[in-house]
Amino acid sequence: MNYQPPVYNGFETVIGLEVHAQLSTNSKLFSSSPNSYGDAPNRNINPVCTAQPGTLPVLNRKAVEFAVKAALATNCVVNPVSVFSRKNYFYPDLPKGYQISQFDLPIAEHGKLEIEFEDQDGKPATKEVGITRIHMEEDAGKSAHMAGYSLVDLNRAGTPLIEIVSEPDFRSPFEAVAYLKKLHSILQYAEVCDGNMQEGNFRCDANISVRPIGQKELGTRAEIKNVNSFRFVEKAIEYEIYRQIGVLQGGGTVVQETRLYDSAKNITNSMRSKEDAMDYRYFSEPDLPPLRLDPEWIQELSKALPERADDKAKRFVAELGIPEYDAKVITGDKTLASFYEEAVQYSENSPKLVSNWVMGDILRKLKETESEIADSPIKAADLGGLVVLINGGKISSKIAKTVFEDMWDTGKSPSVIVEEKGLTQVFDEGTIHKVVEAVIEANPKQAEEYRGGKEKLLGFFVGQVMKEMKGKGNPELINKLIKEVLKS
Amino acid sequence: MASEKLFIDRALMDKTARLARLQLSDDEKNMYMRDLEKILSYVDLLNQVNTDGVEPIVHGIPQETRMREDEPRALEDKHTKEIVSCSSDAIYEQYRVPQVIGGET
Asked: Would you say A35 and A200 are in contact if contact means Cβ atoms under 8 Å apart?
């Protein structure tokens, strides 16, 4: 595969990404306040996360464990000693006047990921991208801007985050999105981050610059902050590439600044920050001695790491015999993969048929209803049950489609629906025979033509009989009986 | 290494005060410039020590950080309300601050 990155009006773009992922611990990073989303303002607070005088941070072991797992899952080197630092700035949602973060000695460094994507011509391509570092830090609170004043809710203050900083290895918006999706999936699979982008569990900042093709030095970069959907990241980056090229071609210079993406207008706007805003005066946190990690503990965590998406896909192909394409789509979302595996368990060994239903009808329904697999009204066990009814000849594939619709609408199990609506397939030869005779009698012309050698008309008769029987007749028997009756 | 006299100019003094959100009079600035120079010069004595082959330390206490278990403890509403009420201005159980739009996030 020989991938050539896109050229934009004689320029190339260089993109680096910073992802903030919230760790799904029960309590905050340095205090025992609950780490939960959606509660009434200022309920998940205590003296530590509101920076009352005299309080001290105590590190959450689970958060460290999750950070290490994320590091291992992204092929990083975990540093045996790392150091917390203070990042100093003033903002009302930061009660201490500094954020406890990591600076010169982060918990992990030197990772890499292989990303897969479609290039500008729609051809599949792969690329290895570097992860510079992962560091741990606490989140800030939330400000709501009202007319004339702002309100601060500190529920989120102190929530554990990891910041994953990539190398500036991306040369197109689609590479950036492929990386974000991969990283999102990896963190979900490692069970360290819920990855709910609406709730801000997984947020992305993108550093973007452009340079004329052939130029070695990097252009001046702009940073786009806090974009919370994959689609918007792609659009925001694309907008920013053309904006910067426009500035340069117009004889101007790109200003190093932070910009915000406005999804309604699909543009980025300069977010003027005050001078000195970037002078964070980092120094090591005197309240926390260095974090030393026991190599044996890291070993243990490495062994206990849940199966990765890529490994799961390989296993699905090897053990369940489903096509690689199906396996990739299904394992792209961890919850979908679990749904599939559970459905297979109830399907009496029909992994391929279950995959067809998941890839087809389930994904279509989710798309139509804009919902997630977790909200599916059809339980995995019931989908497996539906496949069993089809395989056992209890219902035809055609009837199965209507049963599926009913299952989606009512949440009932397939056997209950089949029972209630009398959809069981008819195997009784006598019953089918009667219908076949009636259909032939009603269509003497076609019967004549069939007997005269126009055997294609068999399909016509099968269709008519099926219609009469409302799709419930067993197709093989119908075929057999039509042939017999027409011959006689 | 011989230590040089460290010099704090007015621009650096202004910047330091601004970063710390301190509003200082000219007299105070002059005083702090002298104080800071003295402090830095004193700390600069360390530069005279030969530290070849000495592992840098990042913390004054030769200890490693202690960790706690991930056990959440929610405070009763009356206590969380008490915390918010310590602020100079609160409304709807939230801290009310002068309007801040833009700036660091």
From this structure: no
